[in-house]
Amino acid sequence: MITRDDLKAVGIGKGITETISTTKGLRFNAAPVGLVNREAIYVEIFRGSHTYKNLMESGEIGINLVYDPVLFVESIFGDLNDDDYYTIDGFPFIKKASAVLKFAVTRIEEKELSSKFFLRLVFKKIRDRRIRGINRGFNLLLELAILSSRREITDEYNKMYPIYSPIIRRCGDERTIEALKFLEFQSL
Ligand SMILES: Cc1cc2nc3c(=O)[nH]c(=O)nc-3n(C[C@H](O)[C@H](O)[C@H](O)COP(=O)(O)O)c2cc1C
Fold this sequence. Notes:
The protein is α+β, with helices and mostly antiparallel strands and 188 residues long. 35% of the residues lie in helices and 35% in strands. Strand 7 (99-110) and strand 8 (114-126) form a beta hairpin.
């Protein structure tokens, strides 16, 4: 049985936690996803993505807690490298994750553009207990990455880029700046 303490133990509080999900189809897939922890625990995935297809077909999802901004942006636009993954019983997780959780889908609520996949925890593994400080560069990079992944439906990326990017450059570490360059390249 999933308990809130299982999630708390890996730093997942109430609300939405930004993670990288892993799923298995013909190939391993990774994509950023928000894990929702409210009255229920679920992910809401837009139709048309690989994650959507894999989840519908397999009913399994890995949730990886990752603090590497480059992996976040790389996993939006394409595949990660094979050596970014390791497997547990054949299911992919991300090597660099501080913690990984595996969930099974218990119920699907279909909506017009997306579906909610309600989840039951199968197992969790903590890999790295180092404490991370809050970094505005990383936070805003994630914000910009989300807008960048929605560029086909909204122009918010272009609106927010001039506001967020100077703060990302000022507060972020090298990996965050590298991730910003990657986003800039994608938006050319
Ligand atoms: C921080 C972040 C959070 C995201 N959360 C979600 C989400 O909860 N659901 C979703 O469908 N897409 C989300 N996205 C967008 C997907 O990651 C993006 O559409 C991705 O390209 C899907 O990849 P795939 O086709 O490999 O599944 C998020 C993007 C970012 C950067």
